[in-house]
Amino acid sequence: MRTGAGVERLLRDLAPQALGAVVRRYGHFDAAEDAVQEALLAAATQWPVQGVPDHPKGWLITVASRRLTDQLRSDEARRRREAAAALAEPPGPGGPGTPAAATQDDERVSGQDDTLTLLFLCCHPELTPASQLALTLRAVGGLTTGEIARAFLVPESTMAQRISRAKQRIAATGARFTPPPAGERAARLRVVLHVLYLMFNEGYAATSGGQTSRPELTAEAIRLTRGVRRLLPGDGEVAGLLALMLLTEARRPARCLPDGSLVPLAEQDRTRWDSAQTAEGLALVSSALTTAPLGPYQLQAAIAAVHAEAGTAAATDWRQILALYNLLERISPSPVVTLNRAVAVAMVDGPRAALDLLASLETDERMAGHHRLSAVRAHCLELAGDHATAAAGYASAARTATSLPERRYLEARAAQLAAPARDAGPAQDSGAAQDSGPARDAGAVRGT
Amino acid sequence: MKYLLMIYQNPATWQAVPEPEKKAIMAEAGAIVDELIASGEWVGGEALADPSTGASVQVRNGVPAVTDGPFAEAKEQFVGYCIVDCESRERAIEIALRWPDARLCGMEVRPILSPDGVEM
């Protein structure tokens, strides 16, 4: 008999495969998703007590199919009642079929492809990113609505509504449970990877302290990305994204203090970084870079890898990081990339060169007034030895921050610089050296 | 991202609104709430009792001071709030602009600080 945690893991792996099988057989993605969710809940309560059935996936498909056909029949009955048909007709032969006990063979056939098809469907471009995330976590990740709501700190009813709206929207687009046409596949895969990236960032931003009951979205994002990689082992960007997640997640034990306050990358105790995750991430990214066409996730992973390979902050190979940012800016330009590049420029060419580069961002609507821009500018001013202006800059960044721990961190830096300096002179190793992980990119775009 | 939409009312202006119009305004606000619930953006919200039923609380040098009220005839009173979780600041402002009190008195849109953050 498996433990509760073992059952939970098994259910999450089986969730998208069971859903895929049910949708392929009966259609009705919306209702099928509800039915599978009910079957998962039933399994989560029964299996730890009664034991896992011999064919767990078949069990889920059978139970979900029964629920679905019951539901479809009662919907049909209601429609008939509502039509005020005086004479009740027996259900016609054209209605949904009775679920024969699910056989093992047909769901074994394409459970894997189904998972990918489901991902494409949940990350439908017509949905908002918030809806794509929520639906992916439920339909592909097998999380309950309550768990997803807790992860996003919203009431369960809000999340339930978001998921149901997302499913209605998919139904309204007429999207079918089939893989996207070949011509759209690459673009649709980019959306899927972006949703997984957002899921990871959402979880990575969840600072420790207090919120211990929040489900681990980073672990879920890594698990799902691993799943995509199994299906598309030759795709360099899938490998790059997984590497980026692992290299970033490896830093988690060092990134904040027990009280929840953030520790900047330059000040982290690198001995606490998870060496297994780092090693896996490094191997993934170096193999992807040598075998696949270059892409933005691989480059971001390569930057994270340079940080991971530096035993101390002072040993960081900033020249290499700058070269990688130059490449990234060329193939995937964005103000966030420019902002991160400025940090590398400060370390290689000096803070004045970085301040010149930052000046070009001030006129960019997407960046102007953003706390990350003010924070990086303050960091460069600090490196240049202009502590008074830097302190004012950190204070101004703190005022525009929309995250409590980030605001506290920026306030502390402002206070530190404003206090009479004990040791004057440029602070070479000041803690504001920017992290290049995905999470801080997301931080810079969040709320815009 | 979550936003607090603070609803302000001018008591004199509100009292001067004819009863049927008041009902229409309430229904208008109710319809917006229903719409936000349906879109999955509604997090919560409440209307507040009159400020005179509240209390002002301070502690100075360890000495508590509690006074009823405020009673002062403020032109604009904080009368209720909504919390929405939406895609952008623009969307939060769009919701506030549609809320009937925006034209009767005013609304204030404030981002709610996230308890999460990312190291720099």
* Number of separate helices of chain A: 20
Radius of gyration of chain A: 25 Å
Biggest pleated-sheet summary of chain B? 4 strands, antiparallel
Q: Give the CA-CA distance, first to last residue of chain A.
A: 48 Å
Question: Mean pLDDT across all residues of chain B, rounded?
Answer: 94
Number of strands of chain A: 0
How many domain units of chain B? 1
Low-confidence stretches of chain A: 88-109, 424-448
CATH superfamily of chain B: Dimeric alpha+beta barrel
**What top-tier CATH class of chain B fits best?**
Alpha Beta
The total of helices of chain B stands at 4
How much helicity do the residues of chain A have? Answer: 55-70%
Shape verdict of chain B:
flat
The helix/strand series of chain B, from N terminus to C terminus, equals EHHEEEEHHE
Please, what is the oligomeric state? heterodimer
Unreliable stretches of chain B: none
Task: Using the CA coordinates, give the radius of gyration of chain B.
Answer: 17 Å
Give a brief outline of the structure.
The complex is a heterodimer of chains A (448) and B (120). Chain A is mainly alpha-helical and 448 residues long.
How would you describe this protein?
The complex is a heterodimer of chains A (448) and B (120). Chain A is an all-alpha fold. Chain A contains 20 helices and no strands. Chain A has a domain at 335-437. Helix content of chain A is 68%, strand content 0%. In chain A, helix 5 (129-140) packs across helix 8 and helix 8 (182-205) runs parallel beside helix 10. The model of chain A is unreliable at 88-109 and 424-448 (pLDDT under 50). Chain B is of the alpha+beta class and 120 residues long. Chain B has one domain (2-111): Dimeric alpha+beta barrel (Alpha-Beta Plaits), CATH 3.30.70. Chain B is built from four helices and six strands. Chain A binds chain B through residues 128-131, 152-155, 157-159, 161-163, 165, 201, 204-207, 210-211, 255-256, 262-265, 268, 372, 375, 379, 401-407, 409, 431-435, 437, 439-440, 442-443, 446-448, and chain B through 1-2, 37-44, 85, 87-89, 111, 113-120.
